[in-house]
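Before the break, one more example. Copy the sequence into your notebook; we will annotate it together after we see the structure.
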Amino acid sequence: MIDNYNLDIFKENVRFLRIKSKLTQRTLADNLGCSNAMICDIEKGRSIPKMDFVINFCNFFGVDMNDLFLKNLIEVMHI
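Here is what the structure looks like once it is written out:
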């Protein structure tokens, strides 16, 4: 089950991985086949993405889905 704590971690990890990869919201959206507004809404915690988005995101960045929701990747990656 996804609770607010997991969503906070998720949205921060989405933003961190995007910025770490030097991608704009639009560029990431183009790569994932969604709108840049959707990326913005996810990063601000206004939207919960569907599973297909999460799978595509994990594949694009090479991260484990559990890590995306359960670990603070900023701390894990020591950045």
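The CA atoms of residues 5 and 73 lie 14 Å apart. The chain has a mean pLDDT of 92. Try to locate both features in your own notes.
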